[in-house]
Amino acid sequence: MTDAWGTVTAVDGQYAYLRMDESGCGRCRQPGGCGGNHLGPLWCGSPRTFRVLNPDHCDVGARVQVTVAEGSLSRSVLYAYTSPLLALFAGALSGSACGGEAGAIGGAMGGLLVGWLGLRRAQRQSQHDPRLQISIRS
């Protein structure tokens, strides 16, 4: 499991809105940590808020531990980087074979679009999979 800490900012029925207190995994000073927690504020100036199931009925202001299933983060990153890149290369190669340089440019753009659309479709399909959802750890 990948864990981080957040604070409940609002409660809506069975859901809670969480403001994440950390912008990384929290391993910045540990061996193997990337130091991303220091870079997070540069790109995410405003606090990130997420809507998650609230099975423990935590109240507003409660500090909770948030967890994501083991491996789901690394799989998501792998797919997000490799799918569009491979689609871009495949489109450029096929476009180059059909139409030279102009075909390669068009094929690369088309491949990138196909890769992006594939990621969007995969995101929509996995959006309701409980194994991939963020949850509050008791």
Automatic annotation (TrEMBL):
Keywords: Membrane, Transmembrane, Transmembrane helix. Pfam families: RseC_MucC. The chain crosses the membrane at residues 78-96, 102-119. The keyword Transmembrane helix applies. This is SoxR reducing system RseC family protein.
